[in-house]
Specification:
alpha/beta, globular, 6-stranded mixed sheet, Rossmann fold
Length: 281
């Protein structure tokens, strides 16, 4: 089943197009991961799908309706997004931050109801952050803070959660902690999870569906066996990858890789910078 899809979506900044004629379908109640090199349009796509930024042309359709025409509060009851580096006002407690997730349901003066408090406590319980409820967010570790942000998204009671690089700046243990929590939410709460990840092995391990982007266009979309392949990774990242099987999950994993000389854009850009430096100085 597909509730969310795009139709010939074009997204850009000014005259420059970042995402071009994109047609994707987000499987409902599954975990979808978007992969690709820096600057390929992953975060831009996520922001456009959730209406944080406008798109140039095309449509984003949710439940048969164009999201551009959707009421903001109603849309906020259907989808929640966590940006790459969320920031909260200094001095907020965990409970106060999570309470912001109830905004779409507030009326009048915005006072929290008994139902609101029940949902906030539920979100804290599910994410294992109930013991932090009265602590300042600033006093938490990176992994704890990320779980609190996920709790805020859960407090919105949406069926779809979008996350832009939720494991950034976290150590390996906290990365796994966050991804296992998202997997738990998908299984137990039937949440549709859409996230951007850089780690290919994490994408293969946790995703049901992977979308590989290059220069704002889809190279391949499908399950991990279809996307985490030598040919796809060569095209998307310009790497010569050795693909094996994860002995614990039996899913594909990138064992090692080399840069493909002459095809790596970063290498060319660096050479250009050095040449300019030599000429000017």
């Amino acid at each position: 089943m597909v509730r969310l899809y795009t139709d010939d979506l074009n997204i850009g900044y000014g005259e420059r197009l970042i995402v071009k004629n994109l047609n994707i379908q987000i499987p409902d109640k599954k975990i979808t991961t978007i992969i690709g090199s820096n600057g390929c349009g992953k975060s831009t796509l996520l922001k456009a799908i959730t209406r944080i930024i406008p798109h140039h042309t095309g449509e984003v359709i949710l439940d048969g309706e164009n999201i551009v025409k959707e009421n903001t509060k109603i849309l906020a009851t259907k989808m929640a997004i966590l940006p790459q580096t969320p920031e909260s006002a200094s001095g907020l407690t965990v409970g106060e931050l999570v309470s912001y997730g109830r905004f779409p349901y507030q009326k009048g003066f915005g006072r929290l109801t008994k139902r609101d408090y029940e949902v906030i406590d539920w979100a804290l319980e599910v994410t294992g952050t109930i013991d932090f409820k009265y602590r300042p967010v600033d006093a938490l570790s990176g992994g704890q803070r990320q779980r609190v942000w996920i709790a805020m998204a859960l407090a919105q009671e949406t069926e779809m959660i979008f996350l832009d690089e939720p494991t950034t700046y976290l150590d390996m243990a906290h990365q796994l902690e966050v991804l296992e929590l998202l997997q738990k939410l998908n299984v137990e709460q039937q949440s549709t999870i859409v996230m951007v990840l850089h780690d290919l092995n994490q994408a293969a391990r946790f995703a049901d569906y992977i979308i590989a982007l290059k220069d704002g266009e889809i190279v391949k979309a499908g399950n991990c066996e279809e996307v985490i392949t030598h040919d796809v990774l060569r095209q998307v990242f310009q790497i010569d990858a050795e693909i094996g099987k994860d002995p614990r999950t039996n899913k594909p994993m990138c064992i090692t890789y080399n840069l493909i000389k002459g095809e790596n854009k970063h290498e060319k850009t660096t050479d250009s910078i050095y040449s300019t430096f030599a000429v000017n100085y």
